[in-house]
What does this fold into?
Amino acid sequence: MIEEGIGPTVVTYNTLLKGLCRRGSFDDAFDFWHLMLKRGVAVNEVSYSIILDGFLKMENVESALTLWKHVVARGFATGITFNTMFNGLCKMGKTIEAEEVFEKMKELGSSLDGISRRNLVDGYCKAKHM
It folds into this structure.
């Protein structure tokens, strides 16, 4: 395909990135993420959601929050990225951080879906705030 001038799309890259994360190869996934950026792949909200989810599954909240600020600044803070961040933080009991994401959601005109509401309650329980 490449010889014919048809290269991989962002969907192709996202599929590979998701596969790496699903099998628990987070270090490889982050290396692949940097390769995507280096190659000039036009990453989208799905790309960001996949890598945010990887950070959160590794419980690397600091990296997830740093990337989250970049997501918001670049205009990729959509329902999918909001839910990825919010749900991941709630599942870890990081309710303060989840509330900050929720406030940004409201500020940008988004709202919680049913799954996010359930995860918020679960997060408060894990953090012993209920």
